[in-house]
Design brief:
Elements (H helix, E strand, L loop, with lengths): L1 H15 L7 H8 L3 H13 L6 H30 L5 H14 L23 H4 L1 H22 L4 H22 L4
Helix pairs in contact: 1-7, 2-3, 3-4, 4-5, 4-8, 5-7, 7-8
Length: 182
């Protein structure tokens, strides 16, 4: 069963990879200095479905949490600026770049064996039970993050705010189904 889930996770990762190169997520993890995540991805990718060791899973889960904290902090800063009468567009652009840079990595943060049965996480088991739907939502998040980043490069506040609202909707769509309620 675990091998089947791991194989499905690898297919989802390959399907979500916009470059068509199944090693893109691993390369991004290495480029961002995510050694723990890269090592876990490398082991899963090379083994073809070997379950993660607990210490590897916990390291990836920690990195996943830290990356989501970065996204959350960026969203909060952007939201604060966009509510201001005269938003600091440099701050908005910086946050948009952080989110757009992390969004393509999301599918790689959820290999089999990194759920609640291993350690503390808000990720629900439905992520691994509905991999195609999760992959579709991760893709929508990536696309809305890219669109928001593009809008943030301009100076049309209405367009920036609209793209930010769409990004928030893509976050909520995934959180509603795949994140434990607080």
């Amino acid at each position: 069963m675990r091998k089947t889930i791991a194989a499905i996770a690898m297919m989802v990762l390959a399907a979500c990879d916009s470059s068509g190169d199944g090693n893109n997520i691993l390369a991004e993890a290495n480029a961002s200095g995510n050694a723990a995540g890269a090592a876990v991805q490398n082991e899963v990718g090379e083994s073809g479905a070997t379950p993660l060791q607990k210490d590897q899973a916990l390291a990836l889960m920690k990195q996943r949490h830290e990356n989501y904290e970065k996204i959350g902090d960026a969203m909060k800063g952007i939201g604060r600026e966009l509510k201001a009468e005269s938003p600091d567009l440099a701050e908005v652009r910086s946050g948009a770049a952080v989110i757009a840079g992390l969004a393509p990595q999301v599918p790689g943060w959820f290999p089999a064996g990194t759920g609640q049965d291993v350690g503390k996480t808000d990720a629900l088991d439905e992520i691994w039970m509905k991999p195609e739907d999760f992959a579709a939502k991760a893709k929508a998040f990536r696309e809305s993050a890219t669109a928001f980043n593009t809008a943030a490069q301009g100076s049309d506040l209405a367009s920036i705010r609209a793209a930010h609202a769409n990004l928030g909707k893509s976050c909520k769509t995934c959180h509603d189904l795949y994140r434990e309620k607080e």
